[in-house]
Amino acid sequence: MTEAVQSAHDTSFVVKRTRLRKILDNKTLWRGIAAIILFILFWEVCSQSKVWFGIQVPWIGKIPPPSEVVVNWAEIVQHPGYWESWYLSFFRVFFGFMIAQVVGIPFGLALAVNKYFRDIFFPPFEVLRPIPPLAWVPASIIFWPTTELSIAFVTFLGAFFTIVINVLGGARTIDIQYLRAAQSMGATQWDLFRKIILPGTLPSIFTGAAVGMGITWEVVLAAEMISGGGQQSGGGLGFFIWSSYMGGSMAQVIVGMISIGIAGYVSSSLIRYVGFLSMPWRRLF
Amino acid sequence: MSDQAISSVEAGKAGEVRAAPKGIMLAWYRFKKSLATPDPYLMVFGIFLWLGTYYLLTEGWKVPRFEKIPGPVEVITEFFSRDPIWGTSLFTEDFHTNVYVSCQRILISFGLATGLGVPLGLFMGWSRKFKDYAFPILETLRPIPILAWVPLAIVMFSGFETPIIFLATLASFFVTTLNTLLGVESIDESYFRAAGCLGSKKHHVFWHVVVPGAMPFVFTGLQISIGVAWFSLVAAEMISGDFGLGYMIMDSYMVNKYVSMVMAMISLGFVGWITSAMVRWAGNRMMQWRVKALALEGR
Amino acid sequence: MAAKTTTGSRKKAPAASGGRGAISIRNVTKIYDPEGVNVMAVDNCSMEIQAGEVCMIVGPSGCGKTTLLNVIAGFHSLTHGEIYLDDELLCGPGKPLAKQGADRMVVFQNGALFPWKSLLDNVAYGPMVQGVLSKSDARDKALDMLAEAGLKDVADKFPGEVSSGMARRAEIVRALINDPKVLLLDEPYRAMDALTKSIMHEALLEMYDRTKVTIFFITHDLEEAIFLGDKAVVMTTRPARTKKVVDVNIPRPRDYKLLSSEEFRILVEEAKDAVHEEAIKAFEAGERELA
After folding, report:
1. Does C105 contact B198 at a Cβ distance shorter than 8 Å?
2. Residue C215 placed within a domain
3. pTM here?
4. Contacts of residue A119 in chain B, CB cutoff 8 Å?
5. For residue C190, what are the contacts with CB-CB under 8 A and spacing of at least 6?
6. Are A273 and A210 in contact (CB under 8 A)?
7. Is a pLDDT exceeding 80 seen at residue B1?
8. How many domains does chain C have?
9. Minimal CA–CA distance to C169: which of C151, C191, C154, C196?
10. Hey, are the CB atoms on A261 and B143 less than 8 Å from each other?
11. Chain C interface, best mutation among A5, A11, A12, A284, by max C CB count within 10 A
12. Closest Cβ–Cβ partner in B194, B289, B290 for C106
């Protein structure tokens, strides 16, 4: 039987491995890179199939190969018009998104905090919610005097519903014990709201914002594609894609798609970063 | 250890014990009980407040800008009219066609996306290697908004129908796949260990742990996915369509039949709501274990 | 098996239980390597568990007890040392990861009954997937065993619908239906109140007296350790080593009256000193627990 036993080992058992080694050992990373390269090769081969083998692969055979897209892209970045599209789309997204935040967060919090408010305003909200945001586009164009404003309105609607639902859900999951603890320490209603409900809802606010941002891009793009031809407010990446399509340059359409993908990714990363900065207590996990 | 006794039995008056109401009776009991609180009255008040504001702005006071939007009375009378002024109502052929076409497209797209997305997500969650290869490609394509695929879809697939279905499928495919993957990853490690201890082979683990364990997330994903499918469908129909509710909105707008446009919007909201309720119902049917556990926790 | 007389002659397996399920842990070391920083969870730990013995492992939270269990069960590989089950190498040099199998059944800390299967299906699962019994035979046997544990009325309920005590009991039944050599329990009664716990203890003892299965039981509750065990092994704080072994020579069957006896109190005192010292060290280290 072993009694309180020996330790042959030194207690300093913490050994650091080099960071680089860690990265080089990372199988997931290499597999990911391999997969993406294979994907691009596959696309190239399929698109070139008609030229190389004389047989056109269905579907993918009809779209331009990545090499052509890269050439097209290299050319288009020299045009200021391309960058203006970026600017216009970003501006619209930011504008619609911000209004949705400014209106949606207080509305969601009010729904969560006040029962009567919820009883009265939640049903109409729920009635309107299932209508897809894009269905509002024509109505919005009729109502608002300028196309720009109608795009902003539809963008706002797209993000608004998601944000409100997330804020409401988040605020209602706050553990009642926090509220009781604060009350027992003599917190006022305002303290409860500012010190507990608001920070407690913050994670959901950022989740809602990230999802809302995705929807905002969808909506801006659609609105630009549907109404972008309007005289007062052309431009934007959606319009860029649509006009490239009308002009018959599919390579340019793909440039537009990738650009908008990057733009969407950058915006949602930005939100995650702001979320990371404003919620220090969540960084542990 | 008497929790099931507490949950299923209701203490009546004078210590008399009644069996718990079930199904419709339970709903009726809850309804009766809620009448004693101000909630239902406030709800009705809320709806009427909203409708009233809408009416006054558009038809009552005819506030500038609002007057261009068809008001509730006009829309409702038109909707239920057998002889509609603008040619479309609940009783006309073309309305039925549009609803039918949209629903059919949703059924196909949602079915395709679920049929492809759920297995793909399950396999990605099950096999580390497969996920390492497949996930980066998905993540590269996902940030591209569905609408950006419209021209590509038109070029790749001929006709009206296929591109529209492709777009709706693509949108809900991403959501379903990722949620399924998340579902598998959310399964507690100890279930896999328990299955291993009990002598499961790989296929047992897949069917008895991975599949049922991922179900709650899969159905959350499907709820979102069907919403996304409607979103993309409407967009696609608006941009390039021949039929469907999205087309009805755009077409009515083009020819200034604003009342029909609002009708299409309302119908969209309604069918969208019905379909997502159906998904929720199917989920509850398939996950009795979860429904019952949540019910006992009072949720 | 019940009453042990000497501590000196324990090297050989006692004949009473048929010599099934003896575990020999020899110089086992486990080093984790999460983010490129080595963390030693178990350090050169050795112990012998006789066939049919109830061995209680006591130590502060996060000390590496669970790691030891995971190595035996085959969830983790070991870094050094070797573990034998009935003189058969489970894991050791050249075979760091033990094969998971139904000879060592685990009952988990937070419970791992499949929530999507009824208690009956949970219990019937093991024999069914191993191909030992057909599905209907497995269900019949499962129902018998559940009835024996007093769970007949709730056999068709889902784990989420029954109390945690019942779920725990069903989980032990799920393990026992496979006729394991060793039962590995990882703080199974951790989140229970004292009253429920004592009922669970008696049920476990009753079950043990019936089956005489070897039990490897992790806990941080000293009274539980002395009440249930044939011996209690006190572990040091991370990295885990055996610090002290307390032999519990109290005859079986035992019941709750034992808790107030002098004999019991003395043994608890003996273990307490050793554990308390380690608990302070663990508290001061203040690290989050290892998985």
Report:
1. yes
2. yes
3. 0.82
4. 38-39, 42-43, 46
5. C109, C219
6. no
7. no
8. 2
9. C151
10. yes
11. A5
12. B194
Q: Domain A71-282: give its CATH superfamily.
A: MetI-like (1.10.3720.10)
Do C93 and C152 belong together in one domain?
no
- Interface residue of C38, C237, C238, C270 to substitute, partner A, most A CBs within 10 Å: C38
Q: Which residues of C touch A7 (CB under 8 A)?
A: 43-44, 241
On whether residue C291 sits in a domain, the answer given is: no
Domain B93-296 is in which class?
A: mainly alpha
Q: Give the DSSP H or E segment for B236.
A: helix B211-239
Whether A14 sits inside 8 A of C37 (CB atoms) is yes
Residue numbers of B between 248 and 277 with CB closer than 8 Å to A: 249-250, 252-253, 258, 261-262, 264-266, 268-270, 272-273, 276
pLDDT in tens, C189-235: 887 888 888 888 888 888 888 888 899 999 888 888 888 888 888 88
* Torsion of Cα atoms, A79 then A84 then A90 then A96, to 10°: -150
What does the domain layout of chain B look like in residue ranges?
A: 1-37, 93-296
Domain check: are C71 and C118 in the same one?
A: no
Contact C125, C118 (CB under 8 A): no
Q: Is C7 on the interface with A (CB under 8 A)?
A: yes
A209: part of which helix (H) or strand (E)? Answer: helix A198-227
- Same-domain status, C225 and C163: no
Domain boundary among C179, C198, C225: C179
Q: Which chains touch A (3 or more CB pairs under 8 A)?
A: B, C
Convert the pLDDT of each residue in C134-145 to its tens digit.
889 999 999 999
B293 touches chain A (CB under 8 A): no
**Tens of pLDDT along B119-175?**
999 999 888 889 999 998 998 888 888 888 888 888 888 777 888 999 999 989 999
Q: For residue B72, what pLDDT is reported?
A: 86
Is A222's CB within 8 Å of B135's CB? no
Q: What is the domain-level CATH number for residue C203?
A: 3.40.50.300
Nearest residue in A to C243, CA atom: A4
**A105 has a pLDDT exceeding 80:** yes
Last residue of a domain, one of C132, C155, C179: C179
Residue C280 lies in a domain: yes
Q: Under a CB-based contact definition with an 8 Å cutoff, are residues B169 and B249 in contact?
A: no
For residue C86, the one-letter residue type is: D
- Give pLDDT tens digits for C52-67: 889 998 877 767 788 8
Same-domain status, C206 and C138: no
- DSSP per position, A125-154: HHHHTTS-GGGGHHHHHHHSSSHHHHHHHH
Buried b (16+ CB within 10 A) or exposed e, B180-199: bbbbbeebeebbbbbbbbbb
Domain range spanning residue C194?
A: 23-103+181-285
Bridge-based pairing of strands C80-85 and C23-32 is antiparallel
Instruction: Show me where the domains of chain A are located.
Output: 19-63, 71-282
Assess if residue C17 is contained within a domain: no
**Which pLDDT band holds residue A214 (cuts at 50, 70, 90)?**
confident
In terms of CA atoms, which chain B residue is nearest residue A141? B253
Interchain CB contact of B234 with A (< 8 Å): yes
